[in-house]
Amino acid sequence: MNDKELREIRRRFRSNKNNIMSIKGCIVDHEKNIKSYINQSMINTLSDDSEKLLSLMKKSLSGSVGINLFDLEYQSMQVMDSEEHKLLMELRNSKLVNEDALNIFFNKVIESVNFEGSFAILLACDDYDVFSYNESGEREEESNSVFTYIVCSICSIKDAKPSLYYSDFDNTFRTTDKFSLLGNPEIGFMFPTFDDRATNIYKAQFYSKDVSNTYPDFIKNIFNVLSPMASTIQKDSFGLCLNETLSDDCSFNVIRSVHEHVSELVQEHKISKQEEPLRLSKNSFRTVLESCGVSDEKVENFESKFDESFGKNAEIVPSAIIDVKKFEVSTPYVSIKVDPERSDLISTQIINGSRYILIRANDSVEVNGVNIDFHAD
């Protein structure tokens, strides 16, 4: 799913925009026991409560592709015969009314996650009438298909401490009883996906709030597909690819050039308004490494290491490895943050055998908010 298709589905999560009849789910305690089951009718839910609940479910479709959101793809044989795919299809096709399928799903989730406290498993099913648009941008009178999908949100539950509140009724402060708060989703998914504005039962969209964890046990038990690499691991792996293969050629100028090159690609992609997310292959980095004078042998070593770390012919989302809005130089004791467009102000040099980071400072310089005079030193 591209960003445009994701936005189209996210807009469904308003009380007057969807066909979600109820929220199904269960509450699980810290010992992994189901405390209660949920079957909340959205028709009978107050408007404010409905909006908050739908907003929470929508967060399972939030974040950035390749950072919080990942495509999970099934093999053809799995679609035909795997128990995991059959269960998700049954939940979707029954519109969450098959109690046996729901209980099997709840237990599989409970076995797959390890949270410190209680948590909630929430499921919603929506029927979306997909309309086509003519060349003038006007919507056709009748929809040409119906996209039926389920969204799952797994949310932590935290106990709120008793606190004081003001009562308008008798103008006094009163103490609230201890109660539980439903947190934002830690994990979530959508099945099937809405690719090319149509149903794709070969894919699911997975969400993780924690960018350092893609919950491989959950993905294995619920989908039985390979777990994607967490974005923090992608960033570390990319750094190791450069460091280990370039060796003494892994200089400040090379890393700055890689940052500038990726930033330019991101900007060009943004200007072109392409719907598909930008993805980079090892060939995307060959040109910039060669332009920095890195030898052919080391460039080939980088490509081999890239294949080893990410998979042959892999493509990665730029934001997973580089923050184009940030440029930072760090030592164990000093951290220097620079406007990415002015990274030219930074250079490195060896003086009398010691390594230095040099900052050109022709403009005013402040220390703890106070302008300083270089001549005074």
Map the helices and strands.
Elements: H1 3-10, E1 22-28, E2 34-41, H2 47-58, E3 69-73, H3 76-81, H4 83-93, H5 99-112, E4 119-130, E5 145-160, E6 164-167, E7 172-175, E8 179-191, E9 193-195, E10 198-200, E11 203-208, H6 216-222, H7 231-246, H8 252-272, H9 282-291, H10 296-310, H11 318-321, E12 327-330, E13 335-338, E14 346-351, E15 354-359, E16 366-367, E17 370-371
**Largest sheet, described in full?**
7 strands, antiparallel
Give the termini separation: 58 Å
Q: State the helical fraction.
A: 25-40%
Radius of gyration: 26 Å
Uncertain spans: none
Number of helices: 11
Report the average pLDDT across residues: 90
- Helices and strands: which structural class? alpha+beta
Q: Biggest sheet: strands side by side, in what order?
A: 2-1-4-5-8-11-3
What does this protein structure show overall?
The protein is α+β, with helices and mostly antiparallel strands. It has 3 domains: 3-228, no CATH class; 229-322, no CATH class; 326-377, no CATH class. 33% of the residues lie in helices and 28% in strands. The chain has 11 helices and 17 strands. The chain has helices spanning 3-10, 47-58, 76-81, 83-93, 99-112, 216-222, 231-246, 252-272, 282-291, 296-310, 318-321; strands spanning 22-28, 34-41, 69-73, 119-130, 145-160, 164-167, 172-175, 179-191, 193-195, 198-200, 203-208, 327-330, 335-338, 346-351, 354-359, 366-367, 370-371. A 7-stranded antiparallel β-sheet has the order 2-1-4-5-8-11-3, with helices on both faces. It has a two-stranded antiparallel ribbon with strand order 6-7. A two-stranded antiparallel sheet has the order 9-10. Strand 9 (193-195) and strand 10 form a beta hairpin. Helix 4 (83-93) packs across helix 5, helix 5 (99-112) packs antiparallel against helix 6 and helix 9 packs antiparallel against helix 10 (296-310). The longest helix is centred in the last third of the chain and has 21 residues, at 252-272. The protein starts with a helix and ends in a 6-residue tail after the last strand.
